[in-house]
Design a protein that fits this description.
The chain is mostly helical. It has six helices and five strands. The protein starts with a helix and ends with a strand. About 10% of the residues are buried.
Length: about 220
């Protein structure tokens, strides 16, 4: 074989070798890169759970209101933490907690202040006290209207009695009570119980019904 043909074959062989080596090297580098990526993904997966929360992270929240042990509590964020988790750490809810206004499923975060509302017991007691006072006032008013005043023994002073007190007397209505008061204003106080007969409309028969219940 001529010399130039031998040289040509040698050059061709070298070129094939170089091209093959380049292709092999590229393939190897790609495989190494893919292997590294797989390793990194596996490491990241082991560090995180299904919710994406890093295992072992600690947070602090401040809980006040209707719980047994209010204060700052420490929680391990190995899952999605919610208000119910903080309440459980504080010993649960008090009987006075207003559960209708608590979102137990609400998520919480580090540094959060969780306020647990309580039922308004004081307002209920206050309303009951007012109701009792009103009822007592009604009883007192009824006693006055019926003439059952323990201090007077049922006897009405016709010089000082109000219209309501005069109406507790047998035969005395609203109009007659006003006439008695008008007489006092125009003529002065009654000197004796018999003087009530000077009021227009009160005769001897009416006086007989009144005299045991009136005084001056």
């Amino acid at each position: 074989m001529p010399m130039y043909k031998k040289s040509l074959v040698a050059l061709l062989f070298i070129a094939v070798a170089v091209i093959g080596g380049t292709i092999y090297g590229s393939s190897t580098n790609e495989e190494v890169a893919q292997s590294s990526e797989v390793v990194r993904n596996e490491e990241q997966t082991t560090d995180e759970d299904d919710t994406g929360v890093v295992e072992g992270k600690t947070i602090f929240v401040y809980v006040t209101g209707g719980v047994n042990k209010p204060g700052m509590v420490e929680l391990v964020e190995d899952k999605t933490l919610r208000v119910a988790d903080a309440i459980e750490t504080c010993g649960g809810l008090l009987p006075t907690a207003d559960v209708d206004n608590i979102n137990l499923a609400e998520t919480i975060s580090d540094g959060q202040h969780i306020r647990i509302p309580e039922k308004i017991v004081e307002q209920t007691v206050h309303n009951q006290s007012n109701d009792s006072s009103t009822a007592q006032s009604n009883v007192n008013a009824a006693n006055i209207e019926s003439g059952k005043n323990s201090n007077s023994g049922g006897i009405v002073n016709i010089n000082t009695a109000t219209s309501e007190e005069l109406q507790t007397l047998n035969g005395i209505g609203p109009k007659m009570a006003e006439r008695i008061i008008e007489y006092r204003q125009n003529n002065g106080a009654f000197k004796n119980i018999e003087d009530i007969q000077n009021v227009r409309g009160i005769g001897e028969k009416t006086f007989e019904k009144l005299k045991s219940r009136i005084k001056v």
